[in-house]
Structures are given as structure tokens and as C-alpha cells.
Amino acid sequence: MSARRALRTGGLWFDGVDDYVETGLVGYQGASPKNGWTIMCWVKIGSGGALYIGNRGEEGLGYYSLTLFIHRFTLFGVPAYNAQFGLDRDGVWRGVYFSKDLRDSWHHLAGVFRSELYSPSAPEKAMEVWVDGVRSTTPTPSQIGSGIPFDTWSREKYLINYHQAWATFGRGIVSEIRIYNRALTEDEIRAIYERGALIRDGLVLHLDFTEYEGNVAYDKSGCGNHATIYGARWVVKKPLRVLPKAR
Ligand SMILES: [Ca+2]
């Protein structure tokens, strides 16, 4: 996958030190996520790179976040630079992973939660993580905690590239972030990966990063979940170029 194809729109470069984005999208607000959930993006990382998309931490309140991430170290028994997706809280993880080192080229990631498969004792059975249109339901070797009811899920905002509980920041280029309040089908995920299909049903956050200046990334879903950028730099598509800081 060439950068030119992957970067159909714009993107943001995160430095891995303190850059992140806070979106206006909150989690389930205590309601049952009866239609599922999907988080997706394009990403390119190198050595030392990482990606995190999840809710702002609420460890003190005991809430859980559906989180899609690539870590730079082995975590939950999964090698560095593999994609993981699952329910996360400080000291708790129930999830799945995709066994592939994702460094040094563009990849399309999707984390899908299928609520009809959910049980509090084995949440990972409702999880899928997709890389470049291919699905994995492989549970991570370490599954920590159990008995997670829907009403303890996070009601905090989604962050891009800041995992608050781990105090760690993502490093690399992120593009075309979409979050849906339902589980997308295999055909839909492939259509988005292969053609960039704009599927609007259930779309609650869509950041295509085509502003190229300023510190706001507008949500194109129509839901008004606009995002505030802290330090990350704009990336334009042709030629692929990281812009200097705007502020
Ligand atoms: Ca910075």
C-alpha cells in the first residue's frame, strides 16, 4: 500500500512525546451498546511508533474503554507493533490481536465490537481486529479481569494517540479516522479499505484531516464531534509532506 493511495485525504503526524487529539465523541454514556461499535483508521508507524484510539481514562471511576491500539512493546503477551482491540481499564484487558508487525508501511485498521456475541465473562468473544481488510478474532494470550457489564463502559471523550492510564503517546501518521455506533459488516470494511467507500449509516465521528491548518479537525459525520489538536502536525497528501507547526 503506497502512501499516496492510503492518504486519500489529509493526516496528522504525532511525535510520540506529548501530541494528541481530543475528539468530541463520548463513549456509551452508560447505555447498552446494543448495535455494536467500530473504530477504524489508516496509520503509518516506524520503529518506536505507536497508535492509541480510546476514551480518556477514568480509572478512579472504574469505567472501561473500547480501545484500538498498536504498542511499541510487548503487551498482554502480544509482540510489539501488532494491532490490538478490546475492553481496557487500568488493570483490566479483554481483547484480540492481529499477528503482524505493522511497521514501515500504511495499514488500514478496524476494531469491531459485535454486541450479540458479548458476555460479561468473555468480552473478547465479541471483538474483531482487522488489518487491510483481513479479520482476526485471536484472543490475546493475557486476558485480565472479567465480569464487565455494559453500564460500566466509559462516558468520556475519545482521544487519538494519548492513552491516559498508561501515560503514553502514539507516534506516526494517522489518517481517515471513523467511528461507527454499530458493528460494520465484512463487505463494508473491505469497501472502505479498498475504495474508501463513504458509508454513513451509524457514522458518529469522521476525521479526514483536510483542514491543514489550525488546531481543530472537523467531524465530517454531521454529529458535531469536532476534535481539538494538541501539538500534532498536519500532513498533506500530494506530495506526502509534514507541515511546520501552525502555532
Ligand atoms: Ca509535541
Brief overview:
The protein has 2 helices and 20 strands. The protein has 247 residues and is mainly beta. It has one domain (3-236): Jelly Rolls, CATH 2.60.120.200.
Structural features, described:
The chain has helices spanning 3-6, 186-195, and strands at 11-15, 20-26, 37-44, 51-55, 65-70, 83-89, 92-98, 107-113, 127-131, 134-136, 138-139, 157-160, 162-163, 168-169, 171-180, 203-207, 216-217, 227-230, 233-236, 241-242. The relative contact order is 0.27. The longest helix is centred in the C-terminal third of the chain and has 10 residues, at 186-195. It is mainly beta. The chain has a single domain, classed as Jelly Rolls (Sandwich), CATH 2.60.120.
CATH class descriptor name: Mainly Beta
Shape: globular
Q: Main beta sheet, described? A: 9 strands, antiparallel
Ligand types: calcium ion
Sequence stretches where pLDDT stays below 50 over 5 or more residues: none
Computed Rg = 16 Å
Strand portion? 35-45%
CATH architecture designation? Sandwich
Helix content: under 10%
Tell how many strands the DSSP assignment holds: 20
Mean pLDDT: 89
Structural class determined from secondary elements:
mainly beta
Using the coordinates shown, work out and report the CATH topology: Jelly Rolls
- Spell the H/E element sequence: HEEEEEEEEEEEEEEEHEEEEE
Termini Cα gap: 32 Å
What is the helix tally?
2
Count of folded domains: 1
